[in-house]
Protein: FemAB family PEP-CTERM system-associated protein
Amino acid sequence: MPVDGPVTISPADWAYDAEVIDAYVRAHPDATPFHLSAWSLGVAQGCGQRAHCLIARDQSGIRGVLPLTEVHSPLFGRALVSNGFAVGGGILADHAKAARALAADAWTLAERLSCPTLELRGGPAPGEGWRRDDTTYLGFARDLAADDEAQLLAIPRKQRAEVRRSLENGLTVDIGDRAAHYRVYAESVRNLGTPVFPSALFDAVLDRFGQDADILTVRHEGAPVASVLSLYFRGVVHPYWGGGTAMARTLRANDRMYYALMCHARARGCARFDFGRSKAGTGAAAFKKNWSFDGAPLSYATRTANGAAPRAINPLDPKNRAKVELWKRLPLPVANRLGPLIARGLG
Structure:
């Protein structure tokens, strides 16, 4: 696409520009649901953080956008992140000139906000002064099959056997129970050693995405044992916040959940399933590969102020290992009370 003239950057006024930003995002081939105003404003509302967005324009109109979350945490410091609480984001632009301008102005904004770290989770390489990471995370996505039976047959034999067993365990599936999802998710992340997000975050994202988000819950004898909150964007389902209780493994409830979601998403008109990101070499990555999803490297970029160190918020970071093990041992009511106070600042 030709560059028509000088590129100028302006901050978005969400009250007036959200519709324009979303129209640009929905038309851009590299966009994700995490670029939408619903995500930025949902995160700001649910976690008490501040949403920004930079807009690149030339004489022909909008040529790029960069949504950003200003994250404050007494434990993990301050950062400007694109996009906050997401696995994707980064610069969306029509050409390199607009991308460079957005990257430069984002760093200027980070300095003005006293954020020593700026993180871009996806998008084009922003240029010099950035640390690029193309090896830590993998993304997993593939097309859905034509019908439920074909979907089952598309799963490799060993994993398909697990799904078939789950279909024999008396599990039921329903859509829309927010309270059940939060109970299951909170227990799941405590068992993994990480603090749970505020329930207000899930409520805000669901409310702002409307029909483009839902919750699928698997139950055994009426009790929720696995649940996932998913986003729907341009024919792709993104299972995002999901987990299972201690009983889920024995019941194979997570296997039932993901197969049910594939069938449910197809019924909603989706043609593709985005299994999200996992750290390379982990059990989570192996689980997704067992479902016949091949991992593709995700590119993240970080810029830090001179003398500052990048944030260390990954629970798999060796520096956080002791904290993770301690958190696993917390009584669930205590973890659920303390978790949101910590997690709202992770971003």
